[in-house]
Amino acid sequence: MNRGWGLLVRVGKMRIGLLAVGVGAWYLVTVVNSRLLGAEENPVAPAGQEHLAKAEQKLLRAGMIGLTTSHVIAFTNLINDPKATGPLAQVEVVAGFPGGIQDNPASWDRRPKYTEELRKRGIRIYESIPEMLRDVDVVLLEEVDGRPHLEWARPVIEAGKPLFIDKPLAANLADCIEIFQLAKEKGVPCFSSSSLRFGWGLEEIREGRSRFGKVKKCIAWSPMSIEPHHPDLYWYGIHGVEILFTIMGPGCQTVTREGPEKVVGLWKDGRVGIFEARKGYGAYVEGDKESGEVGKYTGYQGLVEEICKFFLTGKPPVTMEETLEIYTFMSAADESKALGGKPVQMQEVYQKALQQVQARRKK
Predict the structure, then answer these.
(1) Are residues 345 and 235 in the same domain?
(2) Same structural domain for residues 268 and 173?
(3) 202-218 burial code (b ≥16 CB/10 A, e <16)
């Protein structure tokens, strides 16, 4: 009797095991079929086999808004590289919305070229942001002109999609503040940064772990081409200002525009941070151990890795507060310029913009 019961149990376990295998196989086939059906319902242009194989291994589908900057192509090259590893290997750019601002040649004139280049790579181009949002998990807002960023960020935040916003965050400080307010209220991960922050040892300098020791003063520089719809430093000076704040950290209290191409900030602990418009990118650091220039900028890799890491974890590598201080610094530079180079209080500039946001959000 016991032997018979034992045989029955063993046979029963075999049947359960086979049933489990069958259910697992059915689930796998169902998932694959559903993805294939979804791909047929949302067709894209033909892509290479390597691209397709890589896409199948990805966890997150990324969409780009505003195909008007060389970053669109450079970032896609890094993320969609079939040989990508680490966080880059877990994200795939699959969609784009062209965007473009007609009265800004830097935006409108490059839109057709970058849009067509993505289309040729098998990336689907959408006619509206809401339509694209249905088919992506995360978003990169790449529009080179900051004026529509608040408007275009709204539906992304409303949809709960993690959002990276390329520089400039917006075209004025009030819009910058409101974007982050909306993201915080909805609990949506969001950050913005220049690529100059990452990948060449600036974080170590800031933390006092470099040959300079503790930073006492910093002069940072970058080109500063000006676009008439943006504050002077927002358009390209942002790169040098991002270098400055990455090294110095937050805490700037007053800003003085000492000349068209020089802005001096005084930190609350007495340290001095200076932005200068120059060719190339770099910084000179005065530390308590030694002084000298930092290493050479290494390109987009560091930023794009941080973006993908952010998409996977939901943890921004730069706080909203520090980013808003950067944009307050740049806005204060214009305020000081308008006052003939007089010092301007950072807190006053920020509060003025905050009041603008509060007033328009009450309407």
Answers:
(1) yes
(2) no
(3) bbebbeeebebeebbbb
Residue that finishes a domain, picked among 180, 195, 210 = 195
CATH number of the domain where residue 203 is located = 3.30.360.10
Residues 191 and 246 in one domain: no
Q: Are residues 278 and 159 in the same domain?
A: no
Q: What one-letter code names the amino acid at 41?
A: E
Query: In the listed set 150, 165, 195, which residue is the last one of a domain according to the structure?
Result: 195
Give, for all 363 residues of the chain, the pLDDT tens digit: 333 433 333 333 333 333 333 333 333 333 333 332 333 333 344 444 454 455 455 689 999 999 999 999 999 999 999 999 999 999 999 999 999 999 999 999 999 999 999 999 999 999 999 999 999 999 999 999 999 999 999 999 999 999 999 999 999 999 999 999 999 999 999 999 999 999 999 999 999 999 999 999 999 999 999 999 999 999 999 999 999 999 999 999 999 999 999 999 999 999 999 999 999 999 999 999 999 999 999 999 999 999 999 999 999 999 999 999 999 999 999 999 999 999 999 999 999 999 999 999 998
The single residue listed with the structure tokens 């003085």 is: 256
* pTM metric for this prediction: 0.84
Q: Are residues 75 and 119 in the same domain?
A: yes
How many domains in the chain? 2
In a domain, residue 146? The reply is yes
Report the length, in residues, of the chain.
Answer: 363
- DSSP-assigned letters across all residues of 50-112: HHHHHHHH-SEEEEEE---SHHHHHHHHHHS-TT--GGGGGEEEEEEE----TT-HHHHTTHH
